[in-house]
């Protein structure tokens, strides 16, 4: 079975890329993953990311990890990303 940390990394990458596309540079503020079914090693899965809503600097994204045919739900995720600027990164 795949390890939860590897799955979380994939989800954070996909949802973060989606949020960046929509909002520019962002940082992950919250990543809530519900693991529903194990993913056997060597499996191919589909990650589907969707915009839930945007509120000011906040971008809310959901993500589902399923089997490629969609018949098995492996995880459901809600993520919150905050838009950032260079001054945020430099501590300003």
UniProtKB/TrEMBL annotation:
<protein>
    <recommendedName>
        <fullName>Acyl-coenzyme A thioesterase THEM4</fullName>
        <ecNumber>3.1.2.2</ecNumber>
    </recommendedName>
</protein>
<keyword id="KW-0053">Apoptosis</keyword>
<keyword id="KW-0496">Mitochondrion</keyword>
<dbReference type="GO" id="GO:0005758">
    <property type="term" value="C:mitochondrial intermembrane space"/>
</dbReference>
<keyword id="KW-0472">Membrane</keyword>
<dbReference type="InterPro" id="IPR052365">
    <property type="entry name" value="THEM4/THEM5_acyl-CoA_thioest"/>
</dbReference>
<dbReference type="InterPro" id="IPR029069">
    <property type="entry name" value="HotDog_dom_sf"/>
</dbReference>
<keyword id="KW-1003">Cell membrane</keyword>
<keyword id="KW-0276">Fatty acid metabolism</keyword>
<keyword id="KW-0963">Cytoplasm</keyword>
<dbReference type="GO" id="GO:0006631">
    <property type="term" value="P:fatty acid metabolic process"/>
</dbReference>
<dbReference type="GO" id="GO:0006915">
    <property type="term" value="P:apoptotic process"/>
</dbReference>
<keyword id="KW-0443">Lipid metabolism</keyword>
<keyword id="KW-0999">Mitochondrion inner membrane</keyword>
<dbReference type="GO" id="GO:0016787">
    <property type="term" value="F:hydrolase activity"/>
</dbReference>
<feature type="domain" description="Thioesterase">
    <location>
        <begin position="4"/>
        <end position="72"/>
    </location>
</feature>
<dbReference type="GO" id="GO:0032587">
    <property type="term" value="C:ruffle membrane"/>
</dbReference>
<comment type="similarity">
    <text>Belongs to the THEM4/THEM5 thioesterase family.</text>
</comment>
<dbReference type="GO" id="GO:0005743">
    <property type="term" value="C:mitochondrial inner membrane"/>
</dbReference>
<keyword id="KW-0809">Transit peptide</keyword>
<dbReference type="InterPro" id="IPR006683">
    <property type="entry name" value="Thioestr_dom"/>
</dbReference>
<keyword id="KW-0966">Cell projection</keyword>
<dbReference type="Pfam" id="PF03061">
    <property type="entry name" value="4HBT"/>
</dbReference>
<keyword id="KW-0378">Hydrolase</keyword>
